[in-house]
């Protein structure tokens, strides 16, 4: 998948074909979110990749298979993040320069 | 959607990641990381309080460093602080850190749990989801203890948002998988089942996973899910591809949900209700029909999703194993896939067909695909596919096609991948034996195996052929002739020499009439291989030679010369030397009669499960065993000891040293390792490592010398010794010539303390003295025993004491084991006893009036709550003794309850940490018949049965 590699551990009675599609659906979600995902997106936004995965899979089971619903949840979270961001931007930018 | 987050990230983090990526070497990377770690550490330690944003940024950096594979040993506290932040973004990072870097630091867990608790109670769905995700990702026991009771409530609450329900369902599933005992069943279970009817497909998807897991343990509680699942499935299967909107995946309606529903149904037998069953069969047929329709899309996602459902449907059909029509259709469908261009499908088809082959309805249908499968074995490019083909051939084999399949497998073996050769060898050996009509074919097959893949023919395989030849006199002559011919090949495998040596030593006389295989020819043929063989094989050949002296007196001089040669008599290997010396002497001093008796033909081996089958099962692991030991074709029970074959020499040998004469290559007479130490000192000395044959590691040696962690089975008297302590707490637990073990114990509620006194009865010091307590099986979760180490030396005549603190966590059935090991005069001693801790020790007597007793007695009237035993008295029937025993057993004795004054009635409560079990008992002696009837009623079925058994042995 566009230079991405996935590794999935399943139990021996698990359905292999549907597992392949789990990977595909996850790529689709990443694609939608990052806009044609690549390795760098995941490296620099690893926390986002985690959040998307948590919405899609939980405790090793598929939680939500609808692309729309998963992305809606992430989008909502991002909106909250945006709000929070607005409030703290002035101070943090200053600090940012000195700190890295 | 806009990629909102791209720019909003933490700049510091992005810069750090770029720095790391720009590092030219591993050293540079480590340097950069160490610099950053120092920076973060100083920030965290600094006096200035960090704001939430910085904290978040640093925690994120730590997380990244951790993901690069470095250890992170700080920052947990800051992450916990983030958890309690009100800002979503900070909370989110805090949770992520905790989820990825779980730390069982108890102090932190408490804080984390606190934060989670607040979020769960916050009624803010996003926060609740974060908390649930964290619990599900960590899934630790501590979290289970803290939240297992809350989550079901969230799951079934009417006002929970759909997304919260989804997370709660899977979170609960995770906790249940990790610690099933923590998740209480209750009225919520019924409401969970009804989530299958939920409007929201996502909720259904999550709920099905939970229900599937729960119903495996409590099938009856969840029975109602069958009809709900069927109707849900039927709605999905019959829906048009666009009906389900976003739940349609590449034109396949809700593939994940369908697969999960089909899996759920596999937890149950076919539905009993005819209407439900009809509807389900309709669904299954629809799926099979759809497989024949042209694909709606050329995309692989479409076919994968569709076939995922199809395979799951076939699994369900196989699981039901009751609809011949569907089974045959499934088989035909798989047959189509066998020739599909997608390797994955061919692989899966081979795999599923393996299980179909074991159904009586579809076995014949599977067999029609034999040519395709054989072709797959020959032409598939991927080794894992070839392996599945070999599995399938093995599964579809029966008397009608055995010869074809075995010969194909043999042919394949010549070019087979090294990784699967041994398995193929085992399979061929099993099939050849199982379906052998004439045993000459069997012998040919095994010899072919050795010829083609000698290195992969394990001991089990060639032991087995020897056993079969020994047991069947109709094949002995043929076997002798065939091995003789096989040995004439210029280069033959050492295993061939072993088989040949043994068979000619036993049955060489059957072909001695032919001048081409006269005794001297046989001998020189074998001896021509001798020098190229390993010590083990040479030892075997020496045994063959002494047998030759008995069978063919004319070879005596030649063979004696060989034995007398310096290379034998003074061989550096003690085993070879000993054999040469003993055989030479035996052949010179013993009369022909004695020789004939000592070297008599081996008696038949007792029939038992093929050790090869046992080995194959071990190799394949329990999961794959189903295809191999399905009841239809192999009803023989699975004998754990199958790996070690019985040795004939102990049965037949007239002289005490005869096991040296028998085949050393066959296992030595295996005295059970544990009992040896306890019973007989003499046996022990012989059994010690010094006396082990120096024959190179044979499998049974490995079997006889358990690693330091293993312990042997309890000694045979262990149960009897245990019984003595059911009704008393003090006494001598064990005694032999060396050692006496005394016990003193007291119990109160669910706690107990036991003193063990180990007395050295000899005048010699015991060394490496180490008594340990072992909890077999589940016992660890039922009983906690703390022991202190004792001194490793016990002087002659001295006594050491060991204190055990015991806590009963929940009801248990088997006592812990006490494994005692030490060295006495250089010889290792080891034996295992059962520690006299039985469930009744935690009895608290309860006094009650007759009225109360009967009321409770009636409350416990379910058949499984009662256990009853009628048994003969083993001791004189004395009312006073009986009373004392019952009191010793722990229950209160209630007078004036039973109308018959001869009878005894008792009551008590078993105290464990997790629960209390009330027990009522009644013992009715019948002096005339010298019999007792004992009845136990408790609220837990296993406890009733166990107490009844324990107590019944006391009278």
UniProtKB/TrEMBL annotation, chain A:
GO terms for cellular component: cytoplasm; endomembrane system. The keyword Protein transport applies. Signal peptide: none annotated. GO terms for biological process: intracellular protein transport. Its main location: membrane. Keywords: Membrane, Protein transport, Transport. It is found in: Endomembrane system. Residues 1-80 form the AP complex mu/sigma subunit domain. The keyword Protein transport applies. Pfam families: Clat_adaptor_s. It is a peripheral membrane protein. Belongs to the adaptor complexes small subunit family. This is AP complex subunit sigma. It comes from Rhinopithecus bieti. The gene is AP1S2.
From TrEMBL, chain B:
A 1,2-diacyl-sn-glycero-3-phospho-(1D-myo-inositol-3,4,5-trisphosphate) binds at residues 11-12, 43, 53, 57-61. InterPro entries: Adaptor_Complx_Large_Subunit, AP2_complex_asu, ARM-like, ARM-type_fold, Clathrin/coatomer_adapt-like_N, Clathrin_a-adaptin_app_sub_C, Clathrin_a/b/g-adaptin_app_Ig, Clathrin_app_Ig-like_sf. It is found in: Cell membrane; Membrane, Coated pit. It is a peripheral membrane protein. GO terms for molecular function: clathrin adaptor activity. SUPFAM superfamilies: ARM repeat, Clathrin adaptor appendage domain, Subdomain of clathrin and coatomer appendage domain. Residues 615-675 are annotated as: Disordered. Adaptor protein complex 2 (AP-2) is a heterotetramer composed of two large adaptins (alpha-type subunit AP2A1 or AP2A2 and beta-type subunit AP2B1), a medium adaptin (mu-type subunit AP2M1) and a small adaptin (sigma-type subunit AP2S1). This is AP-2 complex subunit alpha. It comes from Rhinopithecus bieti.
């Amino acid at each position: 998948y566009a230079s991405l590699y996935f590794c999935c551990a399943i139990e021996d009675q698990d359905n292999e074909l549907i597992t392949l599609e789990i990977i595909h659906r996850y790529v689709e979600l990443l694609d939608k979110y990052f806009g044609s995902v690549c390795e760098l997106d995941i490296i620099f936004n690893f926390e986002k990749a985690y959040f998307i995965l948590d919405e899609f899979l939980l405790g090793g089971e598929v939680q939500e298979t609808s692309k729309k619903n998963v992305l809606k949840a992430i989008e909502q979270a991002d909106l909250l993040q945006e709000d929070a961001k607005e409030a703290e931007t002035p101070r943090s930018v200053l600090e940012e320069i000195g700190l890295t | 959607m806009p990629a909102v987050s791209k720019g909003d990230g933490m700049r510091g983090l992005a810069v750090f990641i770029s720095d790391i990526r720009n590092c030219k070497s591993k050293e540079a990377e480590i340097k950069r990381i160490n610099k950053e770690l120092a920076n973060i550490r100083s920030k965290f330690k600094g006096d200035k309080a960090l704001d939430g944003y910085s904290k978040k940024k640093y925690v994120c950096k730590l997380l990244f460093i951790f993901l690069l594979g470095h250890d992170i040993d700080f920052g947990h506290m800051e992450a916990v602080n983030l958890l309690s932040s009100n800002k979503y973004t900070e909370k989110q990072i805090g949770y992520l850190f905790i989820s990825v870097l779980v730390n069982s630091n108890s102090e932190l867990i408490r804080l984390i749990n606190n934060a989670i608790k607040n979020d769960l109670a916050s009624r803010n769905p996003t926060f609740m989801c974060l908390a649930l995700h964290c619990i599900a990702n960590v899934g630790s026991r501590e979290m289970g203890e803290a939240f297992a009771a809350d989550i079901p409530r969230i799951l079934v609450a009417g006002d929970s948002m759909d997304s919260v329900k989804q997370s709660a369902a899977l979170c609960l599933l995770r906790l249940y998988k990790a610690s099933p005992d923590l998740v209480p069943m209750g009225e919520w279970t019924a409401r969970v089942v009804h989530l299958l009817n939920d409007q929201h497909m996502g909720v259904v998807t999550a709920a099905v996973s939970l229900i599937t897991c729960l119903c495996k343990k409590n099938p009856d509680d969840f029975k109602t899910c069958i009809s709900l699942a069927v109707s849900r499935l039927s709605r999905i299967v019959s829906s048009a591809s666009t009906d389900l909107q976003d739940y349609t995946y590449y034109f396949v309606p809700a593939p994940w949900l369908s697969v999960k529903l089909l899996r759920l149904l596999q937890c149950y037998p076919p539905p009993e209700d005819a209407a439900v069953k009809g509807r389900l069969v309709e669904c299954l047929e629809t799926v099979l029909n759809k497989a024949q329709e042209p694909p709606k899309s050329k995309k692989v996602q479409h076919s994968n999703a569709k076939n995922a459902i199809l395979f799951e449907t076939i699994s369900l059909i196989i699981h039901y194993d009751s609809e011949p029509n569907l089974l045959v259709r499934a088989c035909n469908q798989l047959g189509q896939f066998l020739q599909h261009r997608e390797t994955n499908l061919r692989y899966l088809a081979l795999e599923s067909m393996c299980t179909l082959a074991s159904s009586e309805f579809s076995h014949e249908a599977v067999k029609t695909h034999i040519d395709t499968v054989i072709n797959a074995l020959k032409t598939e490019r991927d080794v894992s596919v070839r392996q599945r083909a070999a599995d399938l051939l093995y599964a579809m084999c029966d008397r009608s096609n055995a010869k074809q399949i075995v010969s194909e497998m043999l042919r394949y073996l010549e070019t087979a991948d090294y990784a699967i050769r041994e398995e193929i060898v085992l399979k061929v050996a099993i099939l050849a034996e199982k379906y052998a009509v004439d045993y000459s074919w069997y012998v040919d097959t095994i010899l072919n195996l050795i010829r083609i893949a000698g290195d992969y023919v394990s001991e089990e395989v060639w032991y087995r052929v020897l056993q079969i030849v020994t047991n069947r006199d109709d094949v002995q002559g043929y076997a002798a002739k065939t091995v003789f011919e096989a040995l004439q090949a210029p280069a033959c495998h050492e295993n061939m020499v072993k088989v040949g040596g043994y068979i000619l030593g036993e049955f060489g006389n059957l072909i001695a009439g032919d001048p081409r295989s006269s005794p001297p020819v046989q001998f020189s043929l074998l001896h021509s291989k001798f020098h190229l063989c390993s010590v083990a094989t040479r030892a075997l050949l020496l045994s063959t030679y002494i047998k030759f002296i008995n069978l063919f007196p004319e070879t005596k001089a030649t063979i004696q010369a060989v034995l007398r040669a310096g290379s034998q008599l003074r061989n550096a290997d003690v085993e070879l030397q000993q054999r040469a010396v003993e055989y030479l002497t035996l052949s010179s001093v013993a009369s022909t009669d004695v020789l004939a008796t000592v070297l008599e033909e081996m008696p038949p081996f007792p029939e038992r499960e093929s050790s090869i089958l046992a080995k194959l099962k071990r190799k394949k692991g329990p999961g794959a065993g189903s295809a191999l030991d399905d009841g239809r074709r192999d009803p023989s029970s699975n004998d754990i000891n199958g790996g070690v074959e019985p040795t004939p020499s102990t049965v037949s040998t007239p002289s005490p040293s005869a096991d040296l004469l028998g085949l050393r290559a066959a296992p030595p007479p295996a005295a059970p390792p544990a009992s040896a130490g306890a019973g007989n000192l003499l046996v022990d000395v012989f059994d010690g490592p010094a006396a082990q044959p120096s024959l190179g590691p044979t499998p049974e040696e490995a079997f006889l010398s358990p690693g330091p962690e293993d312990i042997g089975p309890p000694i045979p008297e262990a149960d009897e010794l245990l019984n003595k302590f059911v009704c008393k707490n003090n006494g001598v637990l064990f005694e032999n010539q060396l050692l006496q073990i005394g016990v003193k114990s007291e119990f109160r509620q669910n706690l107990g303390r036991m003193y063990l006194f180990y007395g050295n009865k000899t005048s010699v010091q015991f060394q490496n003295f180490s008594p340990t307590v072992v909890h077999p099986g589940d016992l660890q979760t039922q009983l906690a025993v703390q022991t202190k180490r004792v001194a490793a030396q016990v002087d002659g005549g001295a006594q050491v004491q060991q204190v055990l603190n015991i806590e009963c966590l929940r009801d248990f059935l088997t006592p812990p084991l006490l494994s005692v090991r030490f060295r006495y005069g250089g010889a290792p001693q080891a034996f295992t006893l059962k520690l006299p801790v039985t469930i009744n020790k935690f009895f608290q007597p309860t006094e009650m009036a007759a009225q109360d007793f009967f009321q409770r007695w009636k409350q416990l009237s379910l058949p499984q709550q009662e256990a009853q035993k009628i048994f003969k008295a083993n001791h004189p029937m004395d009312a006073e003794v009986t009373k004392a025993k019952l009191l010793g057993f722990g229950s209160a004795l209630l007078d004036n309850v039973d109308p018959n004054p001869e009878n005894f009635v008792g009551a008590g409560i078993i105290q464990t940490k997790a629960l209390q079990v009330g027990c009522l008992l009644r013992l009715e002696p019948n002096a005339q018949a010298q019999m007792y009837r004992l009845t136990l009623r408790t609220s837990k079925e296993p406890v009733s049965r166990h107490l009844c058994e324990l107590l019944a042995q006391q009278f």
